[in-house]
Structures are given as C-alpha cells and as structure tokens.
Amino acid sequence: MTTAPQHAGRPEPLWSPGPERIARAQVTRFQEWAAQRHGAPAAVPGDPAASYAALHRWSVEELETFWQAFTEWSGVRFSQPGERVLADRSMPGARWFPGAALNYAEHALRAAEDPARADEPALLAVDETHEPRPVTWAGLRRQVGSLAAELRRLGVRPGDRVSGYLPNVPQAVVAFLATAAVGGVWTSCAPDFGARSVLDRFQQVEPVVLFTVDGYRYGGKEHDRAGTVTELRAGLPTLRAVVHIPLLGTPAPEGALEWDALVAADTEAVFEQVPFDHPLWVLYSSGTTGLPKAIVQSQGGILVEHLKQLSLHCDLGPGDRFFWYTSTGWMMWNFLVSGLLVGATVVLYDGSPGHPDTGAQWRVAERTGATLYGTSAAYVMACRKAEVHPGRDFDLSRVKCVATTGSPLPPDGFRWIHEEFHEEGREDMWIASVSGGTDVCSCFAGAVPTLPVHIGELQAPCLGTDLQAWDPHGKPLVDEVGELVVTKPMPSMPVRFWNDPDGTRYRESYFEMFPGVWRHGDWITLTSRGSVVIHGRSDSTLNRQGVRMGSADIYEVVERLPEIRESLVIGAEQPDGGYWMPLFVHLTPGARLDDALLDRIKRTIRENLSPRHVPDEVIEVPAIPHTLTGKRIEVPVKRLLQGTPMEKAVNPGSVDNAELLKFYEELGKSSPSGD
Q1: Separation between Cα atoms, residue 534 and residue 457, nearest integer Å
Q2: Closest alpha carbon to 524 in 481, 461, 476, 578
Q3: pLDDT level of residue 548 (50, 70, 90 thresholds)
Q4: Res. 631: pLDDT tops 80
Q5: pLDDT at 675 (0 to 100)
Q6: How far apart are CA 18 and CA 20, in angstroms?
Q7: Less packed terminus of the chain by CB within 10 Å, N or C?
Q8: CA distances for 142 relative to 77, 225, 603, 611, 618, angstroms
C-alpha cells in the first residue's frame, strides 16, 4: 500500500458547522484566550480551517507554550508547581512537568464541590432493561471517599496495584477513582475474559486488591463467573483483599469483603498528591509474541491529555451527557470515565450492543439524553445492514455528535449516518471518526467541532500531536499512504512498560523503525487539505471490536489441543468496514477438522480467552509459513489476504517455504477482505 486517492481541488464536505457552533466551541474560545495571553495565532475571520491549521501548527512547534497555556485555561490544580513544562523531549523518556504534584481523582470529582451540581447525575448506569439509574456527584464523591479510606486501611499505598474484574458499572468507576485517590495503580479486565487471559495480565503487575463480580448479564442471559474468580484468587498470590460485588445476588465467597460495607461510610475524600509522572493505570496491548504489553500511563499525562481531548476536540462540558459503548477491557472505558474531568455526566452501558435488537445503543442514547454518542464503526455498518433508522425511530434530539472508533469508518458509514439524521431535519449532526490507541489512551486525529467533515476522512490531527505520514526512509508524505508517526512527545505516552526495567520492550514496540520517533503501526494519509485517512494496521496486531490483542494469546490456547500442530491467526480490515479474523490450523497426522474439533477449538478460545478472540473461520492448511529464523509470517499473509500481489507482499527469499504462500494469495482473491 503506497498510494492513496489524490485529493485535488476542494471537494464538497458532507457537513460543515454553522457560525454559531464555531463561535461557541471551546476550541474557539481557547484560541482567543491563548492568542491574548500566550502568543497563539489569532483566528482567521471567516476561515475556520485556516484558524485551526494555524493553532495546530503553533501547538506542535511551541509544545511547551501550548501545554502551559492549556493547563492554565483548563484550571489544572497543581498542589506543587512544576519546574518547567517539558524538561526532556526524548522519545522514549520525555519528562513532563518535573516537580509538579496533583491528583487525577481530585479533578474528576471537582463538579461535586459545586453545591448547585451536587444532586445532578455524575453517572447514568444502564443495563439491558435500558432504564437509567443515576449516581449523583455528591453520591459519587462520598463513595469514593469511603472506599479510599478502606483501601488505606487495607494497607494500599501509592504505587500499589489494584485490579478490577468488572463490567461497565458504577462500582468500577468508584473503585478506579478510589485507587487513584490513594495513589494506587488501577488495572482492569472485562468479565468476559477467561481466567488465563486475565492472569496473563494481572500476574505481571501483582495486584494487592481484586474487585470482582459474581457474574454479569449479556444478551438476555446471566453469566456466572464464580469459578473464574476462584481461579484468579488462586493465581494471584499477592492479593491482600478480594472485594465481592454481587451483581447476580450471590453471597460473598469465603474471605471476600462485601462491596456495600466498604462504601457505606460518609467519609470526606482525601486525595494523595503524587508526582505528575506517577502511574495512574496499566493498560494492556498485545504484541505478536509473548505476554500482553503492560502499558503504564501517568496521573498527570492522562489528566491533561484527556482534558484536552474532551474539552477542545469533543467540545464536552457541564450539561453534556457522554456515552460510548465500551467494556472495561478497552481503553475507551478509561477515556469515557474521564468525561468526569470536564463535568459531563458519563453514561455507563453494561450489556450487549445488540440486545434486544440491533438498535439497542441508539435506545440507550435516547433514554439517557446523550449529547455525544460514541460507538464502533462496525456497529454503524451493522445498523445500516439491518436497516435500523436511528433518526426516525428514536428521539435523539439531544445528540450533537455521533463519534466512531475501533476501526476506520467507511465512506458508506459516513453517508448512512448523515442521511439518517438529515432526512429527519437534523442538518446539525456532527460525525466524528477518531483514531488513536491503547498505547497513548487517546486520539492522534479526529474530532474538531469547528471544521467540516469529508466522507471517509478524520477531520484533522489533534492539538499538541505532531502527526505525520512517513515513507520507509523517514520522508514525510502528503496525499500518499505512509506509516503513522508522531515526531514529538505527547503527555499520555507510556512512562514505561511494567517489568521492562531497561525499556527494551518499550523501545522495540514503537521506536525501532524510526529511532526517537513514535511509529504506531497504522497506514495513514495526511491530505493536502489537512484531513486524515486511516487505512488500518500496518503490523500484525489484531484489532477486534476496538480491542487490540496479540496472536500469541490465541496460539497458546489453540495449540494445547493435541490435534493442532501449529496455527496462524490474521485480522484483516475489509473494504466495507468489517473485520475478518480467520484462524489457519495445521493438523497433526490423522486428525480431521470435523464439527467436533471445530467446536472444541472455538470453545477453548472462548473459555480461556474471551468471545472476542473466537475467529470468524477456522481453515485447515497444509503448513504454516515461517521466516528463515522460524517466526510465523503474519504481516505478509495479512497483505495477501487483502489482495496485495505476492511480489509486493513478501520477499520469497525470506520465507522457509515460499510455495505455501500461494494458498493465501489465492484465498485473498476470493476472501471477504479482498477488493
């Protein structure tokens, strides 16, 4: 993939914001303020595109000034000021606000300090009944204060890890904020993850407390997790306490603490003041070999990056209701909870995206009065295929923006959303396709409320993000496909990986191709109009429903089956926005891929990993291709499956048996991911 459609001239945008929307946007107000106080370029009258382009250029060329201005404008509370904004620009190793102290949870609960807002909802919890249940700002702050005091009583100190095996429910938010309040390090997995998958993550960070549910409800059914919790307790010897949350109403197992008892006190929240780079949480993003990467992001880095994204890019503030369909195993949960930072009400949906029907997510938005509605590109395309009519069938009058992520939103997705709302007289509906990653827990490009939307394109690179497309030699490209790189540090970039003392794995993950420059692993086009097109993964990391995972997870469990000699899993983006994930299996002599073995493969993956890991197809192959050093060949096979000719996809001289690749080339000509 080396070329992209040329963007000659100025094609008509799908949508443009009106003058009033531009004038009241927070990014407009910030630009005016920063121009007066910090030398930012003034807005160009009547030309919002030129205004944003100038602001963005300033934000990356004057990186320290931009972040100084933004932290002042957004009212970041430093209990101790930093010596400077950016003491070291090295990547990896950038040092932001050295000497500064603050607390993320204190900022997340600021709205509770306003007596006028104390009884307003901070959270709206929704399950498959679609009946919202509010948690007020005062109630949230009280629960966090009570639980934080109990964590301290249990001996949790700054830097200790606290884990959650929890669905997207208020208890998860309270547990996370209480952990942050005491300076602990939060980490979570969704309860559809199997025990092995969870232990591969939690065992790396050695948590001292585990918050867990007895089960969860999904698709109209109850899913008991008591057995899995028993396995987790046995596999985590560092645990000092287990906290039982009875979502299904079962009594606490022996030795576990009751959730209700821990949040019952009326205790004022105490926020530990920690250094800017103090760990906030550990997220997991799997490579193609070994255990999932345990990514550590900082309290201060996430605080300022999420404040920027949610206020300037998503245009959220008090009075907004922020919904994104997610689970606690995906970075979008962490991003969603940060809606509290700007005083927005956060909508938590715990349930199937398609229960009782495909329109479920739109119904949640209707019932909660969501103003920003976030979902996946795959869900949008599923609604289009199922002939759901959100603009007609639901009262979405409060929704100002429909945002998507997880995979690139295809052109047909843009058109469908626009037409669905336009036909109902909603010409003001802003469509924001955004792209980032677990690795920074933020967006590189996406929403800008003052810019037009073009079909199939993200509106612009984000402020403070020096986003570029590079060719293999490090030459910047415009209107051509290149590697997504970020050439200057972002505050939310990992401070390190857990159990990576010399930083080797961190450097290899992002800085090996271009030393000192973040290479993310996406194909990207920066257009001459300033917009961005994402073309999918340039490496072999799997990306299922927005959750990135490694092939190694799947190989480990599949190849325990005696009939499987070796396997190869590929995730391929499809032209229509779908995602095809086949599993190729090389069987042992005498084994047959009959229905019984097929069922056992799928069941093994579902039970040991999660339903998301189950492949779309299982295909028998004569053998698995390798490099000459014995590594499975994943990226070239993915390219072949996407229809790339053999001579462009792989160097046959680097393969142990090049003849094997012809099978995948032929499959690519007829597969769901081919053109």
Answers
A1: 8
A2: 481
A3: low
A4: no
A5: 45
A6: 6
A7: C
A8: 21, 29, 43, 36, 50
Which residues, in sequence order, are bridge partners of residue 663? Answer: none
Tell me which residue of 243, 248, 275, 242 sits closest to 259, measured CA to CA: 243
Contact partners, residue 39, CB within 8 Å, separation at least 6: 62, 65
Place of tokens 């843009």: 414
Token representation of residue 13: 């945008």
Which is it for strands 121-126 and 133-136: parallel, antiparallel or unpaired? antiparallel
Cβ(643)–Cβ(674) under 8 Å?
A: yes
Residues facing residue 442 across a β-bridge? 437
8 Å CB contact between 477 and 471: yes
Q: How far apart are CA 9 and CA 573, in angstroms?
A: 29
Tens digit of pLDDT for each residue in 307-354? 999 999 999 999 999 999 999 988 999 999 999 999 999 999 999 988
Structure-token match 């109630």, residue found: 139
Of 549, 542, 569, nearest to 558 by C-alpha is: 569
CA distances from 111 to 107, 117, 120, 342 (A): 8, 7, 10, 8
Gyration radius of the chain over CA positions: 24
**pLDDT value, residue 460:** 98
Q: How many helices (H) and strands (E) are present in the chain, helices listed first?
A: 22, 35
Look at residues 339, 290, 37 and name the one whose alpha carbon lies nearest to residue 173: 339
Q: Are 214 and 305 in contact (CB under 8 A)?
A: no
Tell me the percentage of the chain whose pLDDT exceeds 70.
Answer: 94
- Both structure tokens of 455: 């079909």
CA 230 vs. chain centroid, Å, equals 29
SS3 260: helix
Q: Record the tokens describing residue 264, joined without a space.
A: 């019952």
The candidate with the shortest Cα–Cα distance to 510, out of 527, 531, 496, is: 496
**Environment class of 154 (CB within 10 Å of its CB; exposed 0-12, middle 13-18, buried 19+):** middle
What pairs with residue 404 in β-bridges?
Answer: 375, 433
> In Å, how far are 220, 358, 367 from 125, measured between CA atoms?
17, 20, 11
More confident call, 490 vs 544: 490
Query: Rounded to the nearest 5 degrees, what angle is found at the Cα of 249, between the Cα atoms of 247 and 255?
Result: 90
Burial 122-144 (b: 16+ CB within 10 A, else e): bbbbbbbebebeebbbbbbbbbb
Amino acid at 39: G
Q: Which residues on neighbouring strands pair with residue 632, listed in sequence order?
A: 626
Q: If you search the block for the tokens 């700002």, which residue do you land on?
A: 137
Q: Is the pLDDT of residue 185 over 60?
A: yes
Residue 5 in tokens? 């459609």
CA distance 509 to 500: 12
**CA 632, CA 622: separation in Å to the nearest integer?**
14
